[in-house]
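Appendix B. Raw example, untouched.
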Amino acid sequence: MQAAMDITAKYCRKEMEAYGLCVASNPSTWQQKCHELKMNVAQCTSSHPVIQKIRQECSNEFVEFERCLREHQGQPVSCSPHVASFLGCAETVDLSGVATNPVSQPS
């Protein structure tokens, strides 16, 4: 997962920072108030091959984490076990052969 977070931070820093600030500023209503920012992060990261592979191979863990967040909107810290499960899965994904620095398309 650290690899995914590093890549997300590298390629989607602006979106991640805006979403994180929104969540921190709206502890009980972040799910509604930050939805558009969450979608911006998702859109930014959806095209990166490393993140795509992690999402594909750890989709069950990620779905459970998101479900937990929806059910515990006022206490996202209660989803820590789900985060740990997702992180554990992501660390086991074989990234050999996956482009970690996609080549930009010429303009």
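End of appendix B.
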